[in-house]
Design a protein that fits this description.
- It is built from 6 helices and no strands.
- The protein starts with a helix and ends in a 45-residue tail after the last helix.
- By secondary structure, the protein is mostly helical.
């Protein structure tokens, strides 16, 4: 079995396998089953704790975004209109996508304002159960040679 087939079967890519092998693991293509069993360690990809990025919003900044969105003048507007309005006032809290993300995390990213909910419409169902019950109008114009003098 080739290495690419083996790593695909395990669910990792070849670069991950090579990185693990370079970090002190054994070469699975040449090692004996005993060496492999001794070298198997826990897969740390799922349990890794990722550090918080330095540019992440603080809790106070998230709260400020929620306070701004809850103001009466912005309560019915989407972030696509809130962010430019704040920019016109010289205020920058976060990007538009960050506004959407903060509202989604708080469970407030629903339809804002007096926007009507979408209506589910059924497809027209024309069934003729007798003659002359369904009429269709064709309004296309087709160029054809005229043989009848007008």
């Amino acid at each position: 079995m080739s290495l690419s087939v083996a790593v695909r079967e395990v669910g990792i890519c070849e670069s991950t396998y090579e990185r693990w092998r370079a970090a002190g693991g054994v070469d699975a293509t040449t090692a004996s089953p005993e060496e492999l069993a001794a070298a198997i360690v826990e897969d740390k990809r799922l349990t890794r704790v990722y550090p918080t990025p330095p540019n992440a919003l603080s809790d106070e900044e998230r709260a400020e975004i929620l306070r701004v969105c809850a103001r009466s003048q912005y309560s019915s507007l989407p972030p696509a209109q809130i962010v430019p309005d704040l920019a016109d006032q010289g205020i920058y809290l976060a990007s538009e996508s960050t506004f959407y993300r903060v509202l989604r995390d708080a469970g407030l990213n629903k339809r804002r304002g007096r926007v009507a909910l979408p209506r589910k419409r059924s497809k027209p169902n024309h069934v003729a159960k007798g003659p002359l019950e369904v009429w269709v109008t064709d309004i296309e114009r087709h160029e054809a040679p005229c043989t009848v003098p007008w």
